[in-house]
Design brief:
The protein is mainly beta and 126 residues long. Helix content is 8%, strand content 44%. The chain has one helix at residues 3-12, and strands at 20-25, 28-33, 44-48, 54-61, 64-76, 79-89, 92-98. It has a seven-stranded antiparallel β-sheet, with no helix packed on it. Strand 4 and strand 5 (64-76) form a beta hairpin. It is globular, with a radius of gyration of 18 Å.
Length: 126
């Protein structure tokens, strides 16, 4: 995406790109986009200042709070991927995801993207 397209998509998702502040999360410096202060109940994206990866998402829709926590970032190639993601709805734990055996730029067989092959072919080695 271009910068302009990314900004447009973020605005469409309800993030106010005119608001931001800096703080810390778990002792690490972060940028917060979408809010002017931590206690605001507005859509927010928290970004690690050094790695420039998302570490927290807050979304408020229809009186409901959704939160995603992205942790244990692993450097793969030129970028990072999170290996633990935790989701909360209205501050109640909903799901924890762990990712293992992550690799950068794997070679993927075209059959993976062919709908007629669904269930017949798998990306992992048996």
């Amino acid at each position: 995406y271009s910068y302009e397209t990314a900004c447009s998509k973020m605005k469409d998702l309800g993030y106010d790109l005119q608001k931001s502040f800096a703080t810390t999360r778990k002792g690490e410096p972060v940028y917060v986009i979408g809010a002017a202060a931590e206690n605001e109940k507005v859509n927010q994206i928290w970004v690690d200042k050094q790695k420039l990866v998302i570490v927290r998402l807050l979304k408020y829709d229809d009186g409901r709070k959704e939160e995603g926590i992205f942790e244990k970032h692993l450097k793969l190639g030129d970028s990072y991927t999170e290996t633990k993601v935790t989701f909360y709805f209205d501050d109640k734990l909903a799901q924890i995801e762990y990712y293992f055996n992550c690799t950068a730029n794997p070679v993927l067989d075209d059959r993976l993207f062919e709908p007629t092959k669904f269930g017949e072919w798998h990306w992992y080695k048996k």
